[in-house]
Every structure is written in structure tokens, then in C-alpha cells.
Design goal:
The complex is a heterodimer of chains A (182) and B (214).
Chain A: H1 5-17, H2 21-43, H3 51-64, H4 75-93, H5 105-111, H6 119-128, H7 132-143, H8 148-155, H9 159-181
Chain B: H1 2-13, H2 22-44, H3 51-54, H4 58-81, H5 89-112, H6 115-123, H7 130-150, H8 157-176, H9 185-210
Helix pairs in contact in B: 2-4, 2-7, 2-8, 4-5, 4-8, 4-9, 5-9, 7-8, 7-9, 8-9
The chains are: A mainly alpha (182), B mainly alpha (214).
């Protein structure tokens, strides 16, 4: 965890609770990037299509339930507890049981590399390192929001083949992100 | 990208939101729930006939004080558990300490009571009715507290429900003391505690269903 993360986010939250829109925007931007990485690791490639929904649901929960944040308590612990609740809720809705341990996992939400500012460029750089076919699939499905069938048609393959190829592409992408973090 | 649009929307929706005084809001729930329980008690059981005499005695206030401490322990726990990552340790410790003190007092009373009177001291005249009446009287406060919690953000739903039940049970027990004619510490330590524990159990059982975020 970055040493100054808690004071920085705590300050943004305090200002946002006073109604400062710019502080809320930068806090939500940073959280959305951290949440995307946190959820991506835990959802795995087969649920990657739900990633953006889950990030958005969590941001909405953070927004609508922000009055429950007590400024005397750590902000990172509060935000993490919401992310964890949303993740468990996601699995519950899919009738799957997973154990999300309280320790260690929390760190990984905050251990993610500091993405503020250059995140988009970083993502482009990682994507650029993938084979053209995989990169196009990820951009089409995950970023531009096309269906698997549409993306498959563009790449000249069936929906099933696109699904498998996307799975491989996401695995490769995650592997590259892990290497960068290590 | 869609998430950026969402963030635009959320930022536009931002209004100054000072941290809510959750404890104060819950205390209002207790006043309303306690008033409902009092109404129920008056219609259903009535106050004890010797109430004016009883309020001069120490035992009446000991029962009220015990119930009050349990309610405060529940309030403290609810206030913390209404928030993500909130710790209920303080409230739980307070509640367990109060129960521990009463159990010790009750046990001492049992030991100093001649054997042939022990059952009478322990069971009183109303041990069968006492716990279930406390649970029934706790329902108004429990419902109101759970409704208030739904608008907040508990992340441990069974525990938050149990805290709401402890709170409601404490409030109900204060009201029930206006009817209950029992006068022994052993009775209070056992049957009052059991009633509040059942109320907390009821809260824990319904919490995961009614407190789930929509």
C-alpha cells in the first residue's frame, strides 16, 4: 500500500462530503481504476463481462451510502468493505460460494499500482503488447461494449470461438498486468 | 466509456452530505418502538398493580438499569455496524459484561437461598411467559431499527441484525418491567437475559434477508 494513500483519499472524501465536486470526481476516478483491477483478479476470465457492471454498482453504492463514512475511521477500510460486500453479493447472486478472506485481500485493492493520470496510456501500452487479434477482441468487447457475436463476426469467427479467444486474451492481459506489478 | 459517464452523473448528483448522526436516528427509533411496546403492554398485559410501590424499591430500578444497559450496548453496536468496516466490539463487550454481572448476582442469590426455595426464586411465577413477551414487545423497535439500517450500509448482515435485536430487546425489557412483578436477581439474570437473547437471535435470523442492499 502506498504510504500516503490513506491520508490522500481521506482528504478527498472529507472534501467531497462537504460538497466539493472536483474532490469527488478524482476520488471516484481513482476508485474505479482500483476496483477494476481488484474485481478483475477475483472474477476470472469467465466472468470478465460482468467486470464493468460490478465496478459501476460499487461506485453507485459508495455514492449513495457515503453518509455512512465516519471521518474518524480509515477511508480505505470503508471503501474496501463496500467492494468486498459487492463482490460477495455478486457471487451469491450467481449461487456460487467463494471464501474471501478478510486479511491480505484487502491489501490487494490498495496495492495496485498508482493508476491516476496515466492509467489509460498504461492500458494502451499493455494492450499494444498483445497479438493484434486478441487486442481487437478485448477492445471490441470489454471497452466498446460489443457482444461476443458482433466481435466474432468482425474477426471472422463464431461466437463460441470468440468466447474462447477472449478468454485467452484476458488471461494474457492479466498475466501481463501481474508482471508489471511485480 | 460507460463508467466515465456514470462518474459524471454521480459527481453532478453530489450534495454536501455531512456524516449522519446514526446514533441519534436509532434513538428516535427506540422512542417510537418503545412507545408502541408500551401501548401494546397497556392493552395486552397492563402495568403491575403495585407499580407505585414498586418504583420505591431497588429491584424495580435494577431491572430497568439492566435493560437500559443492554439497550445501550445494542445501540452502540448498531451505530458501528451500520457502517462498512464498523466494529461492534465495544457494544458486544458492554452487553456481555452486563449479562455476566447479572449471571454472577443471580448465581450468588441461588447459593445463598435454602435449597427448598431455590426453584421458586429461579422460576418465579412467570418464567414461561417472560422471554416470549420480551420478544413480542421488541418487535416494533426491531422493525423500525431494521428499516433504518436498510438505508445505511451494514456489510455484516446477521451481526447487524443481532445488534438491532439486542437493542430492541433492551428497549422491550425496560417496558416489560412496568408489568413484570418478579423480584429476584436469579429470575432477571435468566429469563430477562433469555428474552433479550431470543430477540437478538430473531434479528440475526432476519438480518441477512431484510438488510441485503437493493
Amino acid at each position: 500500500m502506498t504510504a500516503d494513500l490513506e491520508p490522500r483519499l481521506h482528504d478527498l472524501m472529507r472534501r467531497a462530503q462537504a460538497g466539493e465536486a472536483a474532490a469527488w470526481r478524482s476520488l471516484l476516478n481513482e476508485l474505479s481504476q482500483r476496483l477494476a483491477i481488484y474485481f478483475a483478479r477475483r472474477l476470472g476470465a469467465e466472468h470478465a463481462a460482468d467486470l464493468e457492471d460490478l465496478v459501476q454498482e460499487t461506485l453507485i453504492a459508495i455514492h449513495t451510502r457515503r453518509v455512512t463514512y465516519d471521518v474518524a475511521q480509515p477511508f480505505t477500510a470503508w471503501a474496501y468493505a463496500i467492494a468486498r460486500y459487492k463482490l460477495i453479493d455478486f457471487w451469491r447472486r450467481r449461487r456460487l460460494r467463494v471464501h474471501v478472506p478478510l486479511e491480505h485481500v484487502e491489501d490487494s485493492l490498495w496495492e495496485a499500482p498508482d493508476l491516476s493520470g496515466e492509467s489509460r496510456m498504461d492500458l494502451n501500452r499493455i494492450l499494444a503488447g498483445l497479438p493484434e487479434r486478441q487486442r481487437k477482441l478485448i477492445v471490441d468487447v470489454k471497452i466498446e461494449g460489443h457482444s461476443l457475436a458482433e466481435a466474432g463476426a468482425r474477426a471472422g469467427m463464431s461466437e463460441g470461438a470468440a468466447k474462447v479467444a477472449l478468454h485467452r486474451a484476458m488471461t494474457a492481459l492479466v498475466a501481463r498486468m501481474r508482471v508489471r506489478e511485480d | 466509456m460507460k463508467t466515465d459517464d456514470l462518474i459524471d452523473t454521480l459527481v453532478a448528483d453530489l450534495a454536501p452530505a455531512p456524516p449522519k448522526a446514526i446514533g441519534g436516528r436509532m434513538a428516535v427509533m427506540a422512542l417510537a418502538g418503545g412507545a408502541a411496546a408500551l401501548g401494546l403492554l397497556l392493552v395486552w398485559l397492563g402495568v403491575r398493580p403495585d407499580l407505585t410501590l414498586a418504583v420505591a424499591g431497588a429491584m424495580f430500578w435494577m431491572k430497568a438499569g439492566y435493560a437500559c444497559v443492554l439497550a445501550l450496548a445494542g445501540l452502540w453496536a448498531v451505530e458501528r455496524l451500520a457502517r462498512p468496516a464498523g466494529s461492534a466490539r465495544g457494544g458486544i463487550m458492554l452487553g456481555l459484561s452486563a449479562i455476566g454481572v447479572l449471571l454472577a448476582l443471580g448465581a450468588m442469590q441461588m447459593m445463598t437461598t435454602p435449597e427448598e426455595q431455590r426453584m421458586a426464586v429461579w422460576l418465579g411465577a412467570s418464567w414461561r411467559q417472560c422471554p416470549i413477551r420480551i420478544v413480542l414487545l421488541s418487535i416494533p423497535t426491531l422493525v423500525l431499527t431494521l428499516l433504518a439500517l436498510r438505508r445505511l450500509a451494514p456489510t455484516r448482515l446477521a451481526l447487524a441484525g443481532a445488534a438491532a435485536g439486542l437493542f430492541a430487546g433492551g428497549v422491550a425489557t425496560m417496558i416489560y418491567g412496568l408489568h413484570c412483578p418478579e423480584t429476584t436477581r436469579a429470575f432477571v439474570a435468566t429469563w430477562y437475559s433469555l428474552g433479550v437473547a431470543l430477540s437478538a437471535g430473531l434479528g440475526a435470523a432476519v438480518g441477512p434477508f431484510v438488510l441485503r442492499w437493493r
